[in-house]
Amino acid sequence: MNSHVLTAEVSDAGKRLDHFLQEKLPQYSRSRLQSWIKERRVLVNGESSKVSHLLRGGERIAVEPGDLPPLNAVAEDLPVEVLYEDESVLAINKPAGVVVHAGAGNYTGTLVNRLLHRFQSLSQVGGNLRPGIVHRLDKDTSGVILVARNDAAHRALAAQFAGRTVEKTYLALVHGRVRDDTGRVTKPITRDPVKRTRMTCNLQTGRTALTEYRVLERLERFTYLEVRIGTGRTHQIRVHLASLGHPVAGDRIYGAPKQAASVRLFLHAWRIAFDSPVGGQRVRIEAPLPPDLQAWLSRINSVAIIK
After folding, report:
1. Element at 220 (helix H, strand E)
2. Are residues 123 and 218 in the same domain?
3. In sequence order, what are the beta bridge partners of 47?
4. 138, 140, 180, 292: which is the annotated catalytic residue?
5. Residues 305 and 233 occupy one common structural domain
6. What letter would DSSP give residue 140?
7. d(CA 134, CA 131)
C-alpha cells in the first residue's frame, strides 16, 4: 500500500490524531488507523505519537500503512481451559490479558484463534472474525464465557441474552468500604464524548443498564463484592461501581489509585447460568477465582491482620 503525507491545517487544531486521520483517509477504518499509530507507522513531524494526541495545526503527518490483517480468524495452538461442553455449547475459562476476538492491534493470541485450533468448527452467526462468540469479556477480565458450537445454539443463546434470562455473576474487589450490604445501579451507559476509550454513566443518556451487588467481605481499605448484571454493556460493572465512588481495584481508567500490590483489574466472571439449547435444562457453571487474584486477596487480609 502507498504511503501518505498529510498536513494539519489551522482548522484541525484540537482534533485527536486518530480522528484527523479518519477524516483524511476514509478508506481505512479507525481501528486500523489506531493500530498503525500504536505500531509507530504514523509520524507527526517525524516522531511517533499517541492515538489521543491533539493537533495544533501545521504538523506534517506521515502514514506508512501496514499489512492488512486476515479476514478470517486463524487457528493457533494455544491453551484453552474448558469448564463445560456439550454438543451445542462450550464454557471457557478465559485468562486475563486474552482478547476474545480480533480487533485493533490484536490479531493473534485471541480466544477465537485458540478455539479454532481445538474445535475447528464453531457457529458462523457472528461472522468470520467472531466464530462462536455470543458475548464478550474485557481483555483484562478473567472468567467464564460461553461459546456456541453451531448456528442454532448461537441464536438460542443470543435470544436468552436479549431476554435477560442468562444469569451473570462476577467477583470484584473495589476501593473503599461500601456502606450498604446490597445495592443496585440503573444509570444508562454511553461512550465518553471526550475520552473515547472510556464509557460513562454521568450524561443521563445511553443504553439501559442494571448492576446489582452484594457485600461478601469488608476489608481495611477495600470491599469484596459479588456482582450480578442484568445487561451486558461495555465496561458496565467498572463504570457503575466507579460512579458510586468505589472503582474496581486495579482499574486506573475509571479512577482506581495506583497500588503497588495491583496485579491487574480485580474483576472475575465467576458464574453463568443459562438454558441448554439442546435439552432445555438449566446449566450453571463456575470459574474459580484465579491464583493471582486469590493471592492479592490473601495479601490484603494479611496486612489487615498485622496492623
Report:
1. none
2. no
3. 44
4. 138
5. yes
6. T
7. 9
Report how far residue 133's alpha carbon sits from residue 125's, in angstroms, rounded to the nearest whole number.
Answer: 9
Give pLDDT tens digits for 184-211: 999 999 988 888 789 999 998 899 999 9
Residue 13's contacts (CB-CB under 8 Å, 6 or more residues apart) are: 55, 56, 57
Q: 131, 163, 195 — which closes off a domain? A: 163
Q: How many helices (H) and strands (E) does the chain have?
A: 6, 15
pLDDT at 62 over 90: yes
Which tens digits make up the pLDDT trace of 84-124? 999 999 999 999 999 998 776 667 899 999 999 999 789 99
Give the chain's end-to-end CA distance (angstroms, integer): 62
Indicate whether 156 and 204 sit together in one domain.
no
Q: What is the CA radius of gyration of the chain?
A: 21
Neighbours of 107 (CB within 10 A): 18
Q: What's the one-letter identity of residue 301?
A: N
Structural domain for 28, as ranges: 4-63
Q: What's the CA gap between 122 and 134, in Å, rounded?
A: 11
- Take residue 291 and report the three cell numbers written for it: 491464583
Domain finish residue from 118, 135, 163: 163
Which amino acid does the sequence have at 118?
A: R
**Beta-bridge mates of residue 60:** 7
Spatial separation of the C-alpha atoms in residues 133 and 148, rounded to whole Å: 7
CATH of residue 228's domain is 3.30.2350.10
- The yes-or-no answer on residue 138 being catalytic is yes
Full-prediction pTM beyond 0.90?
A: no
CA distances in angstroms from 146 to 132, 226, 272, listed in the order given: 9, 20, 9
**Which residue matches cell numbers 460461553?**
146
Do residues 156 and 197 both lie within one domain? Answer: no
The reply to whether 170 and 302 lie within a common domain is yes
